[in-house]
UniProtKB/TrEMBL annotation:
Any Pfam family matching the protein: MFS_1
Protein name listed in UniProt: MFS transporter
Membrane topology term: Multi-pass membrane protein
Keyword list, A-Z: Cell membrane, Membrane, Transmembrane, Transmembrane helix, Transport
Species of the source: Streptosporangium oxazolinicum
Chief site of localization: membrane
Phylogenetic lineage: Bacteria, Bacillati, Actinomycetota, Actinomycetes, Streptosporangiales
Localization per Swiss-Prot or TrEMBL: Cell membrane
UniProt xrefs under InterPro entries: MFS (IPR011701), MFS_dom (IPR020846), MFS_trans_sf (IPR036259), MFS_Transporters (IPR050171)
Major facilitator superfamily (MFS) profile domain segment(s): 5-396
Record field: transmembrane: 45-64, 76-95, 101-122, 134-154, 166-184, 209-230, 242-264, 276-294, 300-321, 333-358, 370-389
Amino acid sequence: MTPRSMAILFWATGVLAYVVAVFHRQSLGVAGIEAAARLGVGASGLSVLAMCQLLVYAGMQVPVGMLVDRLGSKRMLVLGAVVMACGELVFALSGGLLPGIAGRALIGCGDAMTFISVIRLVGLSFPAHRNPLMVQLTGLFGQLGAIASAVPLIHSLHAYGWTPTFAGAAVVGLVSAFLLVTVLRDARPERTGAPPSLKAAWAEPGTRLGMWTHAATQCSAASFLLLWGYPFLVRGQGLTPATAGVLLTTLTLCGMACGPLLGYLAGRFPFHRSRMVLIVIGTTAGAWTAVLVWPGRAPLWLLVALVVVLAANGPGSMIGFDYARTFNPATRIGAATGIVNGGGFVASVSVIALIGVTLDLMGDNGLDDFRWAFAAQYPIWALGAVQVIRYRGKARRRGLPATSTNS
């Protein structure tokens, strides 16, 4: 086998692990109604499940970035796959909130080990000029896991029930770990230089520009996919579970199509990246406004328009990582990337929590309750847009490394 073929094989194995990780990450999103009944919790309890998963994921970003430099991608990918499989098994056997929280926390921990490890694998396996394309393809193929967590998982829950469905998800994780052990080869990296400075990365305005970009653009689609979209479409809008699953899949497919386009535009017009971010925030807020103020249940075409607009959220949030690369030297890219990614998921946790608390306060979980609950997104969008504009100016005044593009 040629070196190029081996590189592709190793990358494909890592991507498969990332696909499985995305599947685990979003498996709660279509099981919200069943989880409430199984675990005996309300909307706030469901929020706690998703919040714990995302908080663990966000909190692990910087430590994982440092560990992967010490242990290598293979070890971290195998460990992540096993931890996520254990989390799904715990979740499958859960009969109350505390075991459910433990299962989702394990999933968040294993998930945090995966993407950064695959990105490092790309950097070691391919020449520098191919890295941007391979990173985009990694994110693109990873969304297949989101598709698998929608319609197929809904069907399995209805056909086989809670425990067989999530136990099966655990088996998928173990198969992924076995493939990583048997196929992937990855040399343990050598230790060089001092560890990256978190303080210096945080002090860089471009890092915080990336963090607020990631936070403001990701939170709506993330909360929709991870937990509240399915209950909103079924209970609030009166759609059948199958139709709701198709809409969630549509969101993911449109995001896969939007990613390369937005990536091309960001690379072709680097001076307009922040404008693209603000357009994503504005169109998201506009689409939600149209749905929330519509008298009665929104027509299907408007809900389709909503998920198409939400599809730009994920690709838009990736611009935040481009800012981390642009405004930081190579010695602290990992730390800056962890800050950007962690900030985005903290924002997503906040939106999930606000929606859940509002639904519990309203009590009925009817359409009007969902309207008030999803209105909790507006302050996050407003704060994010203001901070993007603020740190854009600071980053431009601070200046860039000679090899960087502008914002």
